[in-house]
Amino acid sequence: MVHMLGQAVAAYTDATHGMTLAAVSMPYYRYILSYGTAKFARYAVNVWNVNPEGKTEMQIANEGLDIMEAWMKKIGLVMNITELGATKALLDGMVKSTLIMDGGYKVMDADDIRAVLQASF
Predict the structure, then answer these.
(1) What pLDDT is stored for residue 103 in this prediction?
(2) Alpha-carbon distance 92 to 102, whole Å?
(3) Which residues contact 99 (CB under 8 A, 6 or more apart)?
């Protein structure tokens, strides 16, 4: 689904798919976090070396996402769609042009897509 969000942003900007993925991924992951907490926690431990001791799965997962976001910023990725040329005036079009995929942690609807894209500005 994150790829579909990125494609919609790319349709309204001159940004490449990779750039749009960087800009929408963290808001998307944070939005779906409660639907896949266990896997996000496992990712945090196995990829970002988060120490799980004394922490809830949600704390572990959030810490992993925080580390991932810091790393993305460190390597210079664009972290919002505004920097790619997206404006609030384009939001309705981007929402309407996002292909909704079945599966994943949560099947998104237009309201979900709008929320993620708004958080991406």
Answers:
(1) 86
(2) 21
(3) 4, 7, 8
If you search the block for the tokens 């976001």, which residue do you land on? 69
For the domain 2-119, what is the CATH code?
A: 1.20.1090.10
For residues 10 and 37, give the distance between their C-alpha atoms in angstroms, rounded to a whole number: 29
pTM over 0.90: yes
**Residue 89, both tokens:** 């005036």
pLDDT (tens digit per residue) in 71-94: 999 999 999 999 999 999 999 999
Enter the tokens of residue 69: 């976001």
